[in-house]
User: Which sequence fits this backbone?
């Protein structure tokens, strides 16, 4: 077994989180974009190998100890659910700031709560992600003001590497919150277990619900479909304008018209925009064509090692909301009290939600997740690959889980080859 994260990459276990780069004492790991995903490249000549192993110690890709949440969350009235994990309370609600609520994913709760924490000086900053100056490449940074938080609003359905930010937090004064996907939270929790300096600076881990991410191929496919060059993009959002919202693009040139899409106004600089409903382009067009392999073996939908987890709530009566509404999981009394204070201070609106309703709102993605992951891991074993190690009993997959995942792999094969992208449109037309 290779004693560095080359092992992770070779066995298709890498999540692209970037956390390994920061902990290398020899600085011999560099995160680069390969095949539309972020991957660590190791300078093997400089690597200490068996004498170190820190990169593997923080790697979420090699596995997850979900039972660790038993040590993290131990308040007196803690509850536990097979899918949610340990929790104190479950809520729905939204930001009381209408701009944030309307232009952020899921009611803007993450952004608004971070702003509350900054305003009350409970934290000094939060690790968040926005698009860089090119408007389409994710850029992670520490937000220290309201405007910097708002700049990172809404979802980024593409790879996000948090390399270098961990060291910035460890070497800064103050208290910080980390916002990321479940795999990011897993990696940073692992780092905290071996890095006391880092551990002392992080007071909260916030996870976003995640059924699966997408490679940069998804973004590039959308640009190709609507005949746009990256250099023409003036604004790009996977979700904007209301609950679930729309893919929203503004460009220097005319955007190709699309079925059921809405062109928005042109001004003197010839900016042309396109809006496509989220449910139309994400679920119906992208489907599984651009899913990373490691996402197929992930069993953590909500983020069981996070202090608070945020996401949509896809179920009635919440589907009637067109402005924006969130659901979230609170795993400790400390954070529950802060949410109550944020409501009293007029930052947020919130109500209790039953666990059955929350889980059913995620049913399509949540309930088969561990079975399908088990099916993919069985196929990986046959191919001679190492698989992630989990400390819980995996569910036995059904025969149709194997068929579903074989179909997913076929879609992913198409997604990885640009010359086959015409098949995406063909298959989507057949599906209609």
Assistant:
């Amino acid at each position: 077994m290779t004693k560095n994260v080359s092992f992770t990459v070779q066995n298709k276990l890498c999540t692209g989180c970037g956390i390994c780069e920061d902990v290398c004492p020899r600085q011999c790991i560099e995160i680069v974009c390969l095949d539309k995903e972020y991957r660590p490249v190791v300078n093997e000549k400089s690597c200490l190998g068996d004498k170190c192993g820190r990169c593997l110690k923080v790697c979420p890709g090699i596995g997850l100890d979900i039972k660790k949440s038993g040590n993290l969350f131990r308040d007196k009235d803690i509850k536990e659910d097979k899918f949610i994990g340990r929790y104190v309370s479950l809520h729905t609600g939204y930001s009381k700031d209408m701009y944030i609520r309307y232009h952020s994913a899921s009611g803007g709760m993450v952004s608004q709560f971070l702003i509350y924490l900054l305003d009350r000086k409970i934290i000094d900053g939060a690790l968040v992600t926005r698009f860089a100056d090119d408007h389409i490449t994710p850029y992670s940074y520490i937000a220290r003001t309201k405007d910097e938080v708002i700049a990172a609003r809404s979802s980024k359905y593409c790879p996000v590497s948090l390399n270098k930010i961990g060291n910035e937090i460890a070497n800064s004064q103050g208290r910080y919150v980390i916002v990321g996907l479940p795999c990011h939270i897993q990696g940073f929790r692992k780092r905290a277990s071996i890095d006391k300096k880092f551990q002392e600076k992080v007071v909260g881990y916030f996870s976003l619900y995640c059924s699966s991410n997408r490679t940069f191929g998804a973004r590039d496919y959308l640009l190709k479909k609507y005949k746009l060059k990256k250099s023409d993009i003036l604004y790009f959002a996977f979700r904007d304008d209301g609950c679930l919202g729309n893919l929203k693009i503004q460009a220097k040139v005319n955007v190709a018209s699309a079925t059921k899409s809405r062109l928005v106004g042109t001004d003197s600089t010839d900016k042309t925009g396109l809006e496509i409903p989220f449910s139309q382009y994400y679920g119906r067009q992208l489907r599984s064509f651009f899913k990373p392999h490691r996402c197929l073996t992930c069993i953590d939908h909500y983020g069981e090692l996070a202090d608070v987890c945020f996401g949509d709530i896809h179920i009635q009566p919440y589907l009637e909301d067109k402005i924006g509404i969130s659901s979230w999981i609170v795993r400790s009394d400390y954070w529950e009290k802060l949410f109550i204070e944020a409501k009293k201070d007029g930052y947020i609106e919130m109500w209790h939600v039953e666990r059955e309703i929350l889980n059913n709102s995620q049913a399509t993605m949540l309930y088969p997740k561990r079975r399908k992951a088990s099916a993919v891991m069985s196929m990986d074993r046959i191919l001679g690959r190492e698989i992630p190690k989990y400390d819980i009993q995996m569910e036995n997959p059904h025969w149709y889980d194997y068929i579903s995942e074989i179909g997913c792999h076929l879609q992913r094969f198409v997604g990885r080859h640009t010359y086959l992208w015409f098949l995406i449109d063909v298959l989507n037309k057949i599906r209609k």
Remarks:
- Confidence is low (pLDDT under 50) at residues 257-270.
- Residues 399-416 form the longest helix (18 residues).
- The chain has 18 helices and 18 strands.
